[in-house]
Please model this.
Amino acid sequence: MNPIVPRDLDVDFGAVPRHWLARNATATAIANGVNLLFPHGERFFVRSVKHFLDQAVDEPRDAKVGPLSIDPTLRAAIKGFFGQEGRHARAHDQFNQILRAQGYEIDRFLAHYHRLSSWLEAHNPPRLNLAITAAAEHFTAILAEGAFTENVLDAAAPEMRQLLAWHAAEELEHKAVAFDVLRRVDPSYALRIAGLLYATATLGGFWLWAAISLLRQERRDARGAWRDLGKMPRRDPIVARVFLRGIWRYLAPGFHPNNRPTDRIASEWMAARGMSLPGSTSSEAA
Model:
């Protein structure tokens, strides 16, 4: 397992244009839609894993699950995961401030999203929340891989290219952590697939809701949005890549995130563009 190193990003988003992705209103709204989900979502991921990390030290919180045996390598990976996800949440909080400054009304959506997702989290068994996290991390790893292999970020404003390349590279570094914890908590295939179904519905639903909220503020109806997307370079569609092939891969009984080698794609992409990841810092929880 490669080291998972939290890094601090120092970027001023003040100069980011309103339509920062290919100067395209619809493409930017879709990207901003998932960005709105990140801060609360990343913190949910940390809480879901931390519940069972605490259990490995303290008394079991769930009578159906005994104390976990987490080896030092995985424990170090979990700490790195916490540090990376905490920094991602803070960076996207900072970018959300820019969306407000650009005139987007995002707080109504965020209030509904936080309230509903928090209610769901509180009413789910901890093991299901962990399974949802493992599946969601699979989806974010696919998005991260596509950011590099589909060259999506080449059309982004420089500040957003730095933000999303940093985030994507670290998502690929820790893509297996939640899944490995889930295997120790409960290796049940049924639980893993329940988490997949739940993550598909919530990620897809919240993302669509956020994107529509932003598109309405751009005065884009379905026809206008489709016309905008027709101006973008043809790439492997997100729906097919994430929600079709990604689900199919996750359904395989022998699936593991590391079955798909992605160790070098971020560094190679960055090297080709004269970029590099920020300097590393010590890991910390979110």
About this structure: The CA atoms of residues 121 and 129 lie 7 Å apart. The chain has ten helices and no strands.
